[in-house]
Structure formats: structure tokens, C-alpha cells
Design goal:
By secondary structure, the chain is α+β, with helices and mostly antiparallel strands. The chain has three domains: 3-60, Uridine Diphospho-n-acetylenolpyruvylglucosamine Reductase, domain 2; 65-176, Uridine Diphospho-n-acetylenolpyruvylglucosamine Reductase, domain 3 (2-Layer Sandwich); 218-334, Alpha-Beta Complex (Uridine Diphospho-n-acetylenolpyruvylglucosamine Reductase, domain 1), CATH 3.90.78. It contains seven helices and 21 strands. Strand 15 and strand 16 form a beta hairpin. It is globular. The structure holds flavin-adenine dinucleotide and uridine-diphosphate-2(N-acetylglucosaminyl) butyric acid (EPU). Flavin-adenine dinucleotide is lined by residues 10, 39-47, 60, 80, 105-108, 110-112, 114-115, 117-119, 158, 167-168, 211, 214, 219-221, 320.
């Protein structure tokens, strides 16, 4: 029976799927048909359903946290359907610091490795011991080590070789007993007393000042990835745009701030139907309602065009866009 998806994704466009199936026990996956098209969903905070989805949405809602203290660290084994922020809070309440910089990121634990969630100087990969998944073709559970997950900036094997082939069922996290705070991000350097709880609270305050609560004002977080560009291109850009925020990525590349590019292109507050470039953070698109998938696609193309014209930089959307029966990518021709 058709099921509305509007409350199942935080961008909240009106959409439906043919079937919605909730997984509360991983054993259900053995019986699941996985007839095409299907898609796996957590809390829908990085997924936008552009229009009606002609298939089955499989929502991961399994629960459970198991904790094993070891000599030098704690091993946490967490079910895919657990809420990420609740897990971060649980670890701090139990004196296991490490995840505090990743507080308040919406979504499930199972989705966290897919794009290797990151914020305020920390990426999930730092704490991953393993990721366990149900292999849809082989109908068996497989464990990948951190290295096998091929984590990168907003990237992992789950977006490439294993895309649409697996359901992540459990994540193993390793939190060292020896805590080393990560304070490289501006507001964290001003803390008078450095404790994990203080970092956690500062991260929450900073996030609340920039990012809209998706359950109050529909959004999907940063809409585009921060571009990673060769050093030569950065140096050329800095000649005409000396304020461009940039961060070391590797010896040959820097990451630049897409939010700055969008703001400088004059797009803050730009609106198409109910979709708007957020005033407090130009990398975020918000949906005030009365919008359709086509309005969002028009907005994405407009931003990509404006940024390309000004800087010859292509913005890739970070958010996963679902069309009628599959994921889709919106990319302008990179050649002018
Ligand atoms: P969904 O949107 O439900 O799914 C995301 C993708 O993962 C989909 O492709 C889906 O098919 C796949 N997937 C989900 N669960 C599974 C599973 N069990 N097995 C296999 N595949 C699966 N992200 C950051 O990295 N850093 C941030 O600071 C950040 N801030 C945000 C702030 C806001 C206000 C919002 C709305 C989003 C933000 N995000 C951020 C993005 C989002 O929170 C993360 O991507 C999060 O991990 C998504 O979790 P989810 O359960 O909602 O995933
Ligand atoms: N900036 C502007 N104008 C804007 C927005 C940003 O000039 O409208 C500038 C800021 O002044 C700053 C720089 O751009 O100099 C970076 O901005 P910010 O620190 O807010 O972070 P971001 O690069 O926009 C990234 C992540 C966020 C993550 C924060 C904090 C991506 C795509 N986004 O945003 O992740 O929370 O850093 O670490 O990497 C998400 O993925 O959904 C997300 C919210």
C-alpha cells in the first residue's frame, strides 16, 4: 500500500513509496525480498525523495548497544537503527569520551559510516573498529575492518563497490581510555575548562547557532560537499579571492568552503518556491513547504551554475537524491 514519505526524510518534500518496511530485528533481512527498486533508509536526514518512489523503502530500526571494556579502550557494538546523537550522549554519560565533536549530527548509527560523518575536526573513521553488514546477494553477514571501509571525506566503500548491495546492521566503535581532545575548530579553542562534556556542549551551542533543527525547519544539513581542489587552483583563486577559507587536505590538495562560495555569489536568501538558501549558513538549503522536487532540482542547478560561472568550481551535492526508481546525481557540465 502506498505510504507517504514526507515525515521519513528531513527535507520533507511530499512523496510516497509503494511499500515501506521497517526492520526491527536483523533476522527479518533473511526473509526480505529486496525486489528492485528498493532503498535503505535510516532517519532520512541525508536523503531527499524528489518525487514518488516506485519501490520499497526499507527502514532500519534495530536497537541495541553492547559495551566491552578492554585494557586500553572500550568496544561499543551498536545496532544500525540506534540514533547517533543518543549514542554520543550515552558514551559521555558513561565516562567514555571521544565522540563529543560529533554531537547532534542527526541520523542513525547505521548510516554514519556510509558518508563517514564528520564535524569540528573529527571524522567517524577515527573510532571505527569494524562495520558489519548483511550482504543481499549472499544472504550472509560480513564484517569489514576500518581499512576495508575505504573511508574518505564524506565517502566510503558503501557509496561505491557496495552501493545498493548491503544493509549495514552493526557498527563497532573503539574509544581509547586515554582521551585526547580535538580542539582545532575555532570556538573549541576558547573553552576555559577542557572536558569532554564541555566540548560536547560547545559543539551543540555552535551547531544550534548555524544549523536549523530539521524537525522545526525542514533541511538536510550541508547540501553540497566542500570542494577539494589542487593547490595550483587554490593559489590562482586566492589571488582574486584572498578571503576564501581553505584547509589542508593532502600535500597536493586543499579543501575550500562551499558555504563561502555560495554566500559570495550573492545567493543567501535566494528562494525558489519554498526552498531557500539558509540565511545563517549558505551551504544549507531549507524547505519552508509548498515545494516540489522540481523546485529543489532548479535550486541545485542554479547554485551550481552561479558558482561555476564565478569560480570555475563544480559543487557536488552531498545529499542523496532519490528519483522514481533510483538515486540520481545532478551535475552541470564541468566544461563551460
Ligand atoms: P539516511 O538519510 O536515512 O541515509 C543516508 C544514506 O545512507 C542513504 O543513501 C541510505 O541508503 C544509506 N543508509 C542508511 N542506513 C543504512 C544502512 N543501515 N545500511 C546501508 N545503507 C544505509 N553529516 C555530517 O557528516 N556532519 C554533520 O555535521 C552533519 N550535520 C547535519 C545537520 C543537519 C541539520 C542535518 C539534517 C544533517 C546533517 N548531516 C551531517 C547529514 C546526516 O546527519 C548524516 O549523513 C547521517 O549519517 C544520516 O543518517 P540517516 O540515518 O538520517 O541517513
Ligand atoms: N561560510 C561562509 N558563509 C556561509 C557558510 C560558511 O562564509 O554561509 C564560511 C565560514 O565562515 C567558515 C567556512 O565557510 O569560514 C566553513 O563554515 P562552517 O565551519 O560552518 O562549516 P562548513 O564547511 O560549511 C562543514 C560540514 C558540516 C559540519 C561543519 C563543522 C561539509 C559539507 N559540511 O560545514 O557538516 O558540521 O563543517 O565541522 O563538510 C553536513 O555534512 O551536513 C554538515 C552540516
Amino acid at each position: 500500500m502506498a505510504q507517504s514519505l514526507q515525515t521519513f526524510h528531513t527535507f520533507s518534500l511530499p512523496s510516497q513509496c509503494l511499500h515501506l518496511c521497517e526492520i526491527t530485528d536483523t533476522k527479518q533481512l533473511q526473509q526480505q525480498l529486496f525486489s528492485v527498486p528498493f532503498c535503505i533508509l535510516g532517519e532520512g536526514s541525508n536523503t531527499v525523495f524528489l518525487n514518488d518512489y516506485q519501490g520499497t523503502v526499507i527502514k532500519m530500526a534495530t536497537k541495541g548497544i553492547s559495551l566491552t571494556p578492554r585494557e586500553n579502550d572500550y568496544l561499543l557494538e551498536v545496532a544500525a537503527g540506534e540514533n547517533w546523537h543518543k549514542l554520543v550522549t550515552y558514551t559521555l554519560d558513561h565516562d567514555m569520551p571521544g565522540l563529543e565533536n560529533l554531537a547532534l549530527i542527526p541520523g542513525t548509527v547505521g548510516a554514519a559510516p556510509v558518508q563517514n560523518i564528520g564535524a569540528y575536526g573529527v571524522e567517524l573513521a577515527k573510532y571505527i573498529e569494524y562495520v558489519e553488514y548483511f550482504d543481499i546477494a549472499q544472504k550472509q553477514v560480513i564484517r569489514l575492518s576500518k581499512v576495508e571501509c575505504q573511508f574518505g571525506y564524506r565517502d566510503s566503500i558503501f557509496k561505491h563497490a557496495l552501493k545498493n548491495k548491503v544493509v549495514i546492521t552493526q557498527v563497532g566503535l573503539c574509544l581509547p581510555k586515554q582521551w585526547q581532545p580535538e580542539l582545532s575548530y575555532g570556538p573549541l579553542q576558547k573553552l576555559s575548562k577542557v572536558t569532554a562534556k564541555a566540548v560536547y556542549e560547545q559543539v551543540i551551542t555552535t551547531r544550534n547557532s548555524k544549523l536549523p533543527d530539521p524537525y522545526v525547519l525542514a533541511n538536510a544539513g550541508s547540501f553540497f560537499k566542500n570542494p577539494i581542489i589542487p593547490n595550483s587552483q587554490l593559489h590562482a583563486l586566492l589571488k582574486s579571492h584572498s578571503q576564501l577559507p581553505h584547509y589542508f587536505y593532502d600535500d597536493a590538495h586543499h579543501k575550500i568552503a562551499a558555504g563561502w562560495l555560495i554566500e559570495q555569489a550573492g545567493l543567501k536568501g535566494h528562494r525558489i518556491a519554498g526552498i531557500e538558501v539558509y540565511e545563517q549558513q549558505a551551504l544549507v538549503l531549507v524547505n519552508h513547504g509548498n515545494s516540489q522536487g522540481g523546485d529543489l532540482v532548479a535550486m541545485i542547478k542554479h547554485i551550481q551554475q552561479q558558482v561555476w560561472q564565478r569560480y570555475q568550481i563544480h559543487l557536488h551535492h552531498e545529499v542523496r537524491l532519490m528519483a522514481d526508481s533510483d538515486e540520481c546525481n545532478i551535475n552541470l557540465q564541468e566544461q563551460p
